[in-house]
Design a protein that fits this description.
It is built from 28 helices and 7 strands. It has 704 residues and is α+β, with helices and mostly antiparallel strands. It is globular and about 85 Å long. The N and C termini lie far apart (75 Å).
């Protein structure tokens, strides 16, 4: 019998505590089980991730050491089935990372990042495992498997091969070391940006509110009150607060201050400065791909994307760039003329662009963005999302009783998704709409469980997350047209998750320059007549948005496209330039400045994401050399939107909607993207529709 306080007893007790950790346990409750967000505790996180990795590595080792000859079932399917407890733990980890971060979590995150990297390397560099995968892959090329199995084998093999599985032992060791270093740098980069967003707040007094809409003023008063500054008005360092302030504030010096705070995140020569981190990231990425014989990081990264190589991505961007610059020149001239007529005695600067663009919009189109905003209620727009999903996907959204599904914050709401006709349960949709301290900026979609059928049907738990400014108590949440567009965009990702009809978990992934297509396409339904007439209702009168205001919105649809396209493309081009240039002598501040000058970047505009806070690229690898993907996807978007516009039923054409779901949403990554688009459209996409959408000159011929 063991003594009560013996080391062995303590080990067994610790192991028991870990095994009972709710973050590892199967989801319980209704709807096929849901995450226990009401029971999650930060103290449980580190042991859950560590034990989850341990369990998964044990499963992987068992697969690798299987004495039976490698087959699809005993190797690929076994891998697909492995790691479920860890996947659940990572779901909770993602909530703390993105939605409810804290200094305590960031310490744990810093501890876990290198461990997670080591765990990943142990799988990707397991020689016995890769040998089995390669055998299945080689056999499948001789004797093809069913299409979905063939696709899984291809994707699994490619993932290992592209991550250095075929390197020699010495190179593998260095590869793993690099990944470990990068994981720490990515965590530091993203936490630095979050710290800069939290640390810089501009507090206004009542005499500094000139030009600001009433709804924004009330929300800013609430934000100040939440920060212990009663009687003041807080402009937080997030896009959702910065953007409307720069659009409406008459106080030019304050606009400059807010603009400077936002665009200098990670670039303040302090403990949160990210410039040295960028240098290290670029050098390590370059060294890592050189181990596999690639000339640069972009060449390695893009080979399995739709673009295939950096040259094709650059060709697309440079086909659009000159037209965008020409439009900016026209926009600036219009703004300068208006400023001169007002006697402002200024030269247009970046902190003036949104402000004077809004004045020009009113002057040219008699369109007031704040007037439009009065018809954009968050609750009504949420209903518009559900209506669109019902018309295209046959989905029905029903609020779930608040007590029946746990949430991680009181602002989160949940709906059940069912088939409108059969009533079949599809999944749940969680919405976390408002900005708050500890929540990362921007908007995103994610899943807490993806659809699969290979091991019993699992329904989808999908989530949309936004950073709308929370309204004052009793006031409606009114958002801008741009924010409404983003709301539809992110819901497009959720519909992509919910419509999944794949068997194997790997097929729920996506190709980066394709996965934004589905979400960008869904944006188009915001401006359809059925949505406008039913859901764009004035928050006070309940009256539908007037037809003449709708006409103004449509006439102004290409307005400010110079700004929109140029600020995006500048970031996408910089991303590609960073990863096709020898990083040895890159200083981010200098490189950004000189590269943009060479590209002819207008001085009145900055990159949408300046290098020191370009989280898409430097807080991980998901969008690294992939930010161009939004434009690549938008070529498909514009082309597909024209298909709907030209169809007999317009954007609600039933036959085309069926093809949309069948080929573009339900397959996820079970079908090659180019093949999927051809099946939907009957041909490849061309750039022409994109140029028409943006009001740019259409190039001669039909470039792909």
């Amino acid at each position: 019998m063991l003594a009560q306080d013996s080391p062995q007893t303590k080990i067994e007790m610790n192991r028991k505590n870990v095994e009972e950790n709710v973050l590892l346990k199967e989801y319980q409750g209704p709807y096929g089980g849901v995450p226990a967000f009401d029971k999650m505790n930060l103290d449980q996180l580190e042991p859950a991730i560590e034990r989850g990795m341990e369990l998964h590595l044990q499963e992987i080792q068992k697969i690798a050491n299987d004495p039976q000859p490698p087959t699809f079932e005993n190797t690929i399917v076994a891998m697909e089935r492995a790691g479920k407890p860890l996947n659940r733990a990572f779901t909770y980890y993602g909530i703390w990372s993105s939605n409810i971060s804290s200094p305590e979590f960031r310490e744990i995150q810093a501890e876990l990042a290198p461990q997670i990297s080591e765990y990943s390397s142990k799988i990707l560099q397991n020689e016995k495992l890769f040998k089995r995968i390669k055998t299945v892959y080689d056999n499948s090329r001789q004797t093809p498997l069913p299409e979905d199995q063939q696709r899984v084998v291809h994707l699994v093999y490619e993932n290992f091969a592209l991550d250095g599985a075929e390197l020699n032992d010495e190179a593998k060791q260095r590869y793993a070391e690099i990944n470990k270093e990068l994981s720490q740098l990515y965590t530091k980069f993203s936490n630095n940006v979050l710290a800069e967003e939290e640390n810089y707040v501009v507090f206004l007094t009542k005499d500094q509110l000139s030009g600001l809409p009433e709804s924004f003023v009330k929300a800013s008063a609430k934000a100040a009150e939440d920060r212990g500054e009663d009687g003041k008005y807080a402009i937080t360092n997030t896009r959702s607060s910065m953007d409307p302030f720069l659009t409406y504030s008459d106080e030019r010096e304050l606009r400059k201050k807010v603009w400077t705070n936002y665009y200098s995140r990670g670039d303040n020569n302090d403990e949160f400065d990210n410039n040295d981190i960028i240098k290290q990231i670029l050098k390590l990425r370059d060294e890592r791909v050189s181990l596999m014989g690639y000339d640069n990081y972009a060449e390695w990264r893009l080979q399995n994307r739709m673009a295939k190589n950096p040259e094709n991505a650059m060709d697309l961007m440079m086909a659009v760039w000159p037209a965008a610059l020409a439009r900016v020149e026209e926009e600036v001239a219009d703004m300068q003329e208006l400023a001169n007529a007002e006697g402002a005695n200024i030269e247009i600067k970046p902190w003036d662009y949104r402000y004077y663009a809004e004045k020009v919009r009113k002057d040219k189109y008699d369109l007031n963005s704040d007037e439009v905003k009065q018809y954009l209620q968050l609750d009504k727009l949420t209903q518009a999302l559900f209506f669109t999903a019902g018309e295209l996907f046959n989905f029905k959204f029903t609020p779930v009783p608040e007590a029946s599904v746990p949430v991680f914050h009181e602002e989160v709401k949940v709906w059940e998704v069912t088939d409108k006709d059969s009533g079949e349960h599809i999944g749940l949709w969680y919405l976390d709409p408002f900005a708050r301290k500890g929540k990362r900026s921007g908007a995103w979609a994610t899943t807490y469980r993806s659809h699969t059928t290979f091991d019993g049907k699992e329904t989808v738990l999908s989530s949309n997350n936004s950073n709308f400014v929370k309204p004052a108590p009793g006031e409606p949440a009114l958002i801008s047209w741009d924010d409404a567009t983003t709301f539809f965009h992110e819901f497009g990702h959720a519909l992509h998750f919910l419509s999944s009809n794949v068997k194997y978990p790997t097929l729920n992934g996506g190709v980066r320059d394709y996965t934004e297509f589905q979400s960008q396409l869904l944006e188009r339904w915001l401006s359809t007549d059925k949505v406008i007439n039913q859901f764009l209702l004035h928050h006070e009168t309940g009256e539908p948005i007037p037809a003449d205001l709708v006409e103004k919105i449509k006439k102004a649809s290409t307005f400010n496209q110079g700004f929109e396209t140029t600020e995006f493309l500048a970031s996408a081009l910089m991303d590609m330039k960073y990863h096709t240039t020898d990083p040895a002598n890159i200083d981010p501040r200098t490189f950004e400045k000189e590269t943009l000058e060479e590209l002819g970047m207008p001085e009145e505009i900055v990159m949408r994401h300046r290098s020191p806070h370009f989280g898409h690229v430097f807080s991980g690898e998901g969008y690294a050399t992939g930010y161009y993907g939004y434009l690549w996807a938008d070529v498909l978007t514009s082309d597909a939107a024209e298909a709907f516009a030209e169809s007999p039923g317009g954007f609600y054409d039933k036959s085309l909607a069926t093809r949309l779901v069948q080929y573009l949403f339900a397959p996820r990554n079970a079908m090659d993207p180019a093949e999927a688009y051809q099946k939907f459209r009957g041909r490849d996409a061309t750039i022409n529709a994109l140029m028409r959408d943006r009001g740019f000159p259409v190039p001669e011929g039909e470039p792909k």
